[in-house]
Amino acid sequence: MKIIAESLNDFNLNKNVYRKIVSFIKNLKETYPDVNLVLSVYKTENKNYTLYLDKIAIQENNRKKGLGTEILNKICDFCDKENIMCSLEPTDFHGSDLVRLINFYERFNFKLENKYNENSKDLTMVRCPNQIKTC
Fold first, then answer.
1. Do the beta carbons of residue 79 and residue 50 sit within 8 Å?
2. For residue 11, with 0-12 CB atoms within 10 Å meaning exposed, 13-18 middle and 19 or more buried, which class applies?
3. C-alpha distances out from residue 84 to 45, 70, 78, 128, Å
């Protein structure tokens, strides 16, 4: 698991929010040491915090056991509690079925920001905290 942040000033982050996010990510790492999970945090132009899920890779022998669902539930619960948006870019780069991934993330209330097109690999999905309709 990687924590991407050079310094608080790079992202203009509040120290308390930053510490909570780093603590949460470290806790995930300790809880799921065999999962390749890459998360980063940034502030959007409208000053909202966003937790970016760059990668979640579960070893093949641990797939289909609910581990991805469990981890994503924890991420979504944290984001709701801290009022932080969450974003990701589903991809079939590693052989995953893109439509299946989109459907999986939609179960957690992630919404596509751009239209799905079989020819487009640039997809972004965003989840607003606490089910707020727009971020």
1. no
2. middle
3. 14, 19, 8, 7
Domain segments of the chain: what residues? 2-131
Stated as kind and residue range, the H or E segment containing 124 is none
Find the farthest-apart pair of alpha carbons in the chain and give their distance in angstroms, rounded. Answer: 42
Residue 130 CA to its chain's centroid (Å): 15
CATH topology of domain 2-131: Aminopeptidase (3.40.630)
Tokens describing residue 2: 């990687």
pTM attached to this predicted model: 0.81
CA distances 104 to 10, 99, 126, Å, are: 32, 9, 13
pLDDT along the chain (135 residues), means of 10: 42 72 89 89 73 87 90 95 90 80 93 70 86 67
Other Cβ atoms closer than 10 A to 117? 9
Half-sphere exposure of 105 (CA within 13 A, CB side): 23
Rg (CA), the chain: 15
